[in-house]
Design a protein that fits this description.
heterotrimer, A alpha+beta, B alpha+beta, C mainly alpha, A: alpha+beta, Alpha-Beta Plaits, two-stranded antiparallel ribbon, two-stranded antiparallel sheet, elongated, B: Flavocytochrome C3, Chain A, domain 1, globular
């Protein structure tokens, strides 16, 4: 079998300068919002979150955990006047 | 997008415990003045005690402890390297602050006859005051902020300080930052700035691998350490890390200060207590570390010997305050305090004067080494200051900042914002740059990498070779900061925080290399210099950013003590006073 | 800002509960006293979440004119609303606020009676003395508990005898709290009652009585405390040892030496510490035998005790 051409020096040099590529990945997140109980227009939980990981989903106008940054501190759950939020322990710790 | 522009007499950066009392004090003294409180989250739920606190660890209440006793305890717990005047200032001002909090409606535990129910946890003084209903502490502080009329600006994060230089003199001129919701750049001019940004709590990576599963509120990313450093202010004792004994995996405190007075305690796998230290110190953490890594590990919190009524009382506190999700963590695993031991672990590293001794160098007036810049709370260098220290020093900082802005030199001064345009433009470009990099590295991935490297190279015990390797990795990672990409303002905040975290990592590494001895138990345990060396190292190790942009070190002598401490007392935390029994 | 408040208050009449709730959530940022009457009216809202938000805002506002309406919410149909009302009532201060609370001490609903007494605790309002003494005879034990504690905070001599009678209460928690309340008035005449309480059927009453007697600086309770060294509960044994140490009761020495062999380390630790406090020379051999105790806290207590006893 003939030797493959050694492209490694060229590719290694190229890998250092080429731009970055990205993929999208799913996350299991701790903050679970009951959409039936979440009141449209209310954003108490979004204001409560100390790490700003919640947001109002513009399509549904309900709260949702947008960024996987939760401290499982329960501020959103405690402050929700409608008991629409349940915080689970993040799966990595559970 | 237009910049957000704010002008103030005094701006407080960070609306946690220290920031709230600072802003209230400043506004009360300046009824017509402009006091601005900047907070990267919302002051209703921000700071280390966002969800409340279950007790004070260092209350100095007449009849239970004296300032002299407390200053001596803290001096010993920090192996003598302290500025006693700063501790003393806390010790005498904390009792009026505690009474103020009581009047504001903060709920402290009281005895059946209405006295503060102080508990003895340490050997000498009695300092622990439980707050079983401490969950609404932040609500009460927020109410006082509003009643005082402070201008609160939520969701703006400081990224750099603005410094005015003229005639060889440097002084503070304001804060630059980012609106983490809109992505607008913010310029806040002020005559004085009080930094109250909390700990560097997102430094090491929790063993679970979850970036935000930290002991400290993860919003406290070391912002204040980085802000002060880049402004040229001195920091001190950065080699004295924060490491805590925590519930394994959950990574939150089991609160020995809550369970201890009720009979709970830490045991090894044989079911025996082993911690010799009488105070939460690096020495105690070293004992914990050694036990964990011995044949007597792992280590547990033992509560299963307590009566049902007592367990209910403990759960009522631990499941409602500070980290209330503890209860569902245990329930999820089918564990209960009544039937199971709670497995304990030691945390990843952080920087926090509230629990150890590292921070921005301040004196007893909360002044940093930069004129007009003050610091308080977990990021300021008063050791073992905890919650009450933050509340007390916030007020102290405001008092002296008020004097500063009233001084002739400062009152009418303040260069035109235009004269800072170069610095402002550079910072705006730096902070907003990731938005333009559509294919940039996501901040959470780079943060993971920095913090994983912190664990790999900086987690004690320390050695020069590992630390130098770590610095090489940090230098390469610093280049990658320039490749960060953000697709929204939230990610822009996380990108800027990567810079804070890396700054803290580099400071931690270089400070640890500088002090070639071991001190503070596990916090600065060097395998290559295992002995404490008072002859050479009975000094503060301070660092600052030099004119050439590099990190400079200097040593400051330990100021003469105001409360004398004998040599034998100074060594009491490192002595193994109690011999190990032969057969355990 | 003021326009925003008017607009939000107008929404409280909206038929959609969600609209009313959101309006209250936003009112938080623009609150002033013009919201008082609309917020009081909102306490009658059919939606529980709206009532809770309104209570929170009235608490923030701090105007005592809201107190009667919040007191009424103590008997709300929703438990969450009751809790919010209870939490809010504690945040008011001053004599103006005490008046409506005192007026409700004889309310028909025990939840209201309990709630207002609880809210009165930090007021230490002199005029609350007689109404509180009256509440000690309340039919509901939870009301009597709050009355005992609130009277203790008042610290008035007139309440000693009524509190003393509570040592015989049918409810163990009332008895326990009465022991604690009386600790402030500790007089020789009370010692017999407290000694009797060391034989209570409830272990927590016994424990608290032992602790209080340990602070009496009297020798008369010593025999009763000695008996408690053999209580079926280790928690009581430990406190009895500590109390005897504080009283320097040398009569306890042989009993405490026996307790050094207790299975539970906290009891061994307390016994060792007490022997040190007593300065019991004859305990030295037994103490020294414990230097290899597996529990470090016992070893520390032993070392300190030996040091205390051997240091002149």
């Amino acid at each position: 079998m003939p030797d493959l051409p050694n492209r490694e020096p060229a590719k290694a040099a190229q890998a250092k300068i080429v731009g970055n590529a990205q993929a999208v990945r799913r996350f299991d997140v701790p903050v679970v919002v009951d959409a039936a109980k979440c009141v449209s227009g209310c954003h108490i939980c979004v204001e409560s979150c100390p790490v700003d990981c919640l947001a109002i989903d513009l399509a549904t106008s309900k709260a949702t955990m947008k960024h996987d940054d939760c401290w499982y501190c329960l501020a959103c759950e405690i402050d929700c006047p409608n008991d629409a939020i349940t915080v689970k322990i993040p799966v990595l710790l559970r | 997008m237009d910049d957000t522009i704010i002008s103030a007499d005094i701006v407080v950066v960070g609306g946690g415990s220290a920031g709230c009392t600072a802003a209230i004090r400043a506004q009360e003294a300046l009824p017509k003045g402009r006091v601005v409180l900047l907070e990267k989250a919302n002051i209703k739920r921000s700071g280390a005690i966002a969800i409340g606190m279950d007790g004070l660890n260092n209350a100095i209440i007449p009849g239970h402890a004296t300032p002299e006793q407390y200053v001596r305890e803290i001096t010993m717990a920090n192996d003598g390297i302290v500025n006693q005047r700063a501790i003393w200032e806390y010790a005498v001002n904390s009792w009026p602050m505690l009474q103020q909090l009581d009047a504001w409606g903060v709920k402290f535990q009281k005895t059946a006859s209405g006295d503060f129910d102080v508990k003895q946890v340490h050997h000498n003084g009695r300092y622990v005051l439980p707050m079983p209903e401490g969950y609404d502490l932040k609500k009460i502080l927020t109410r006082q902020i509003r009643r005082a009329g402070v201008q609160v600006v939520n969701r703006i994060m400081g990224t750099r300080l603005l410094v005015e230089e003229s005639g060889g003199q440097r002084r503070i001129a304001g804060v630059l930052g980012l609106d983490v919701r809109s992505g607008a750049f913010a310029i806040i001019r002020a005559k004085a700035v009080i930094l109250a940004c909390g700990a560097s709590g997102r430094l090491g990576l929790p063993a679970s691998g979850y970036l935000f599963g930290t002991y400290e509120n993860p919003a406290n990313a070391g912002d204040g350490y980085s802000l002060a450093y880049h402004a040229g202010a001195e920091l001190t004792g950065i080699e004295c890390f924060q490491i805590n004994p925590l519930i394994k995996d959950y990574n939150g405190p089991a609160c020995a200060y809550v369970t201890g007075p009720l009979g709970g305690h830490t045991v090894n796998a044989l079911g025996h207590r082993f911690i010799k230290s009488d105070y939460w110190s690096g020495q105690m953490m070293l004992e914990f570390y050694k036990e964990l890594h011995s044949q007597r590990g792992p280590v547990y919190l033992k509560l299963d010997h307590l009566a049902g009524e007592t367990i209910t009382e403990i759960e009522r506190v631990l499941h409602r305050t500070e980290r209330p999700s503890r209860g569902r963590f245990h329930a999820g695993r089918g564990h209960s305090y009544a039937n199971d031991l709670v497995e304990m672990h030691i945390s990843e590293i952080g920087l926090c004067s509230g629990h150890s001794g590292s921070g921005v160098w301040i004196n007893e007036r909360a002044e940093t080494t930069l004129a007009g810049l003050y610091a308080a709370g977990d990021m300021a260098s008063v050791p073992h200051n905890y919650l009450l220290g933050a509340l007390t020093y916030g007020k102290i900082a405001a008092g002296h900042a008020l004097d500063y802005i009233a001084s002739k030199d400062v009152a009418g001064a303040g260069a035109e914002t235009a004269s800072f345009s170069e610095a402002i433009d550079a910072e705006r470009a730096r902070v907003l740059a990731p938005l333009a990099r559509t294919d940039g590295i996501p901040p959470h991935q780079l943060e993971y990498k920095i913090r994983r490297l912190v664990n790999d190279y900086l987690q004690p015990p320390k050695t020069a070779t590992r630390y130098e390797r770590g610095l090489l990795h940090f230098a390469r990672t610093a280049e990658e900061l320039g490749q960060l990409g953000a697709s929204n303002p939230h990610e822009l905040m996380r990108a800027a925080e990567c810079g804070f975290i890396l700054d803290c990592a580099v400071m931690a590494a270089k400070s640890s290399l500088y002090r070639t001895e071991s001190r503070w138990g596990l916090y600065h345990y060097r395998l290559d210099y295992p002995e404490r060396d008072d002859a050479r190292w009975f000094v503060h190790v301070n660092l600052h950013r030099g004119k050439d942009g590099t990190m400079q070190f200097l040593e400051r002598p330990v100021a003469p003590y105001v409360v004398p401490v004998s040599d034998s007392e100074l060594h009491s935390y490192s002595q193994l006073r109690i011999a190990e029994p032969a057969n355990t | 800002m003021t326009d925003l408040q008017s607009a939000l208050l107008a929404k409280l009449g909206n038929p959609d509960a969600a609209v009313r709730q959101v309006a209250l959530a936003q009112l938080d940022e623009v609150l002033d006293e013009r919201a008082l009457a609309p917020l009081i009216a909102a306490l009658a809202d059919p939606e529980g979440a709206v009532r809770i938000l309104a209570i929170g805002l009235l608490e923030d506002l701090g105007d005592h004119r809201a107190i009667p309406a919040i007191i009424a919410a103590l008997s709300d149909s929703s438990e969450a609303v009751q809790e919010a009302a209870q939490a809010a009532l504690r945040e008011f201060r001053g004599a103006d606020a005490a008046l409506p609370l005192l007026a409700a001490i004889t309310h028909g609903d025990p939840r209201v009676r309990r709630g207002v007494i609880f809210a009165l605790r930090e007021f230490k309002e002199p005029s609350s003395l007689q109404p509180l003494i009256g509440a000690l005879a309340d039919a509901a034990p939870e009301v009597r508990r709050e009355a005992v504690l609130t009277l203790a905070f008042l610290r008035r001599g007139e309440s000693v005898d009524p509190l003393r009678q509570r040592l015989q209460d049918s409810d163990a928690q009332v008895r326990r709290l009465a022991v604690g309340a009386l600790s402030f008035f500790l007089a020789p005449a009370l010692i017999d009652d407290l000694v009797a309480a060391t034989q209570d059927s409830d272990w927590q009453v016994r424990r608290d009585a032992v602790i209080v007697l340990g602070r009496s600086a009297l020798s008369s309770p010593v025999p009763a405390l000695l008996a408690r060294l053999h209580d079926p509960f280790w928690q009581v044994q430990k406190e009895a040892a500590t109390a005897l140490g504080r009283l320097h009761a040398s009569a306890a020495t042989s009993h405490l030496i026996g307790l050094l062999a207790a299975g539970f380390p906290d009891v061994r630790r307390a016994a060792a510490a007490a022997l040190g406090d007593i300065g019991a020379q004859e305990a030295l051999p037994a103490l020294r035998a414990l230097v290899d105790d597996p529990d470090v806290e016992v070893r520390k207590a032993v070392e300190r005790a030996v040091q205390t006893i051997t240091t002149p």
